[in-house]
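Handout, page 2. Input:
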Amino acid sequence: MTYAIVCLLTAALSAGATWLLCRKLSARLGMRELGVKEIPLAVRDIPGKDEYVPRCGGLLPSAAVFATALVMLLLHALLCRLGSPSGTPRLSGLQNMYVWGGLILAPLFCAAGFMEDYAEVFRSVRRAMPRWQSVLIRMAVATAFLAAIWLAGDRGAGMTVIPFVGEVRLGFWYYPLSLLLITAVVRGAELSQEAEGTVPMVGFFSFLPLVLTAGILSSVNAGMADAGIMAIAGACGCLAFLPFNHMPARLLTGRAGGAFMGGLLCAAAFAQRMPVLLLLVGGVFIAESVTALFAWVTERLCGRMVGAPLHRMIGRKEKNDEQITLILAAVTAVSGAAAAALAIFTI
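Output:
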């Protein structure tokens, strides 16, 4: 009962805070407030528009989701402690190191994305951060996250749960595979933000299966409850941000917003000890990273780019951002439903 109430409060607070911040601060999100130059809609070939759209509008939902998750996690821990009949502290998700590591992981990815957005706007694209440096920074953040979990005493981190297989101990290989998985999801979310509305809509359908599986797991392991709270905050934040980012966008997600949502998605999956679910719930983001990597490698080796990031390849069929978003969201909804079904049968 306590978990259900906290989940409802989390959903309302995350959606409300995101909508309020975007509504009240979107007009002020300019050079003075956050040091981000605004980009005119006219540059993006939208006829009849001469307004200005903040490049890093994704900072607003990121801040709202982070604050909501932090407050509700602490509230849930407090309620569990007060509700313990034996007087023994029940710390719930405070014992789940992935939850608290994820609350650090996502803002670090957001900061890295913000620096890249800032460099492109103020230093021009020519002086922006090279792609290989950007990927290395994401890998360094992911490495710090995994190292912190290991140093905190989670010696069972080499074990994961695979649907229909059960618990599998990967040993050393758990860490490099996890590193690649986190980097692919986060980088793919950053690339997807180029199509307006993609990150919030795809993110919403990515978080939903994790909300469902966390709710089921919480009946067995109280430490999984807060993974669900974190996923609910992300899902409702994405949903509330969608009207502002939907084409034609009033706020652009930017790499900062895309990186934050990608990092939070990874944290929610790892907190449930089923990172393999990211292959389905984050499949679109992983496909973005893989196709972008293939295009970059072919450009370096062959002198010309073969292929492009996934959303650009779909856009070549003369589809606008709205159609691209709907296609990617539909794929994510189907793969997310499959991930939830596999997880439930495994549990």
